[in-house]
Amino acid sequence: MRTLIVVSSLLAIPLFAAVSRPMPAAPTAAAASVRAAEGELTLDPVHCMALFRIQHLEAGQFWGRFNAIAGTAAWPADDSAAPVIKATAEIKNIDTGSEKLDNNLKGPNFFNEKEFPSITFTSTGGTRVAERHWTLTGDLSLHGVTKPVTVDCVVTGVGKGPGGKKVGFECTLTILRSEFGMTWGIQKPPKAIGDEVRLVIGLEGDETKAE
């Protein structure tokens, strides 16, 4: 699949203005790994979701989502290294607002939940775009196929909840589902559903407490 992003995110990508203060130099891979580990986060499934958009019958752009994204993230508070993200969406948590359509998407023509029950993304590196804005590289596993993708990732904010520090991310990307073996509706039946899928992924992580 070609990539665009989102984590993208799933759709509108927030733009961040350039900051006046100089950006810190990009750390070495080893330093980035050490610093990222200092900001370890556990994703909060209640406040994490992945939106997807695809064209239907060459007409409207249809939206759906995966609820309860789970996994981990890491990001140093000084923004000296790219976010490190590992996230999983369970096919059972698909939500289009229609139970009939949800069951169809879980079936063999689409995600085939029985054989491939989850989708995972694991980041492998990152390049700075601006303050708190990174281009991530990583591996996306979908429908039994794993491919490298590029994701636009913005740190949307740092806050505090009842359990401590919280950090938010928005990731966006675009993929071709045919590259992951999901071809129903592209040629048979012809042009029923588009090939290009836009993803917008909203993540919120809680600071991991030492045991």
How would you describe this protein?
The structure is a single chain. With 211 residues, the protein is mainly beta. The protein has one domain (38-207): Lipid/polyisoprenoid-binding, YceI-like (Lipocalin, Beta Barrel), CATH 2.40.128.110. The protein has 2 helices and 11 strands; from the N terminus they run αββββββαβββββ. The chain has helices at 29-38, 99-106; strands at residues 40-43, 49-55, 61-67, 70-74, 84-90, 94-95, 118-130, 133-142, 145-161, 164-176, 196-207. An 8-stranded antiparallel β-barrel has the order 1-4-5-7-8-9-10-11. The longest helix is centred in the N-terminal third of the chain and has 10 residues, at 29-38. It is globular. It starts with 28 loop residues before the first helix and ends with a strand.
Using only C-alpha atoms, the radius of gyration works out to 18 Å
CATH superfamily: Lipid/polyisoprenoid-binding, YceI-like
| CATH class descriptor name | Mainly Beta
User: What fraction of the residues are assigned to beta strands by DSSP?
Assistant: over 45%
Summed over residues and divided by their number, the pLDDT gives a mean of 85
CATH-derived topology? Lipocalin
Overall tally of structural domains: 1
Total E-strand runs: 11
Net shape: globular
Q: How does the major sheet shape up?
A: 8 strands, antiparallel, barrel
